[in-house]
Give the backbone structure.
Amino acid sequence: MLCHFHHLHSHRSQQQLHLYLSLSHYRVCWCYPLQMLFCHLLLIKPESSIRFAELSAAVAEEAAADAEVDAVVAEESAADAEVDAAVAELSAAEAEVEAAVAELSAAGAEVDAAVAELSAAEAEVDAAVAELSAAEAEVDAAVAELSAAEAKLMPLLLM
């Protein structure tokens, strides 16, 4: 694989690591290691270029697969976020239902209190009706006594 070497002087930039140039059917690779003051000129055969293209394609395929995995992970994260949002909505709905049940229970207690007040008022009315009936019975008894007394006095008055 190594066809030529050329020594170059240190005036080339030592910071440059690789420089690829295309020359006809060959690829030339200039290497500048920091420790060396010269450079190697490597001529790479076309078969190596084909292998390099195959490796580049494999790297590209792996990058595409990684991108697909990243997309799936992002979709799963989005789905997880949607599930979390649905759970939060469900929790809020449950809290609303619990609040409505508490309001309904309070309203039921108010109705029970009103029914108890009504029952007490009805008992008072019943007691008042009973008192009125007793008073009417007393009046009827008094009227009956008066009528009996008049009936006794009537023959005396007619005489």
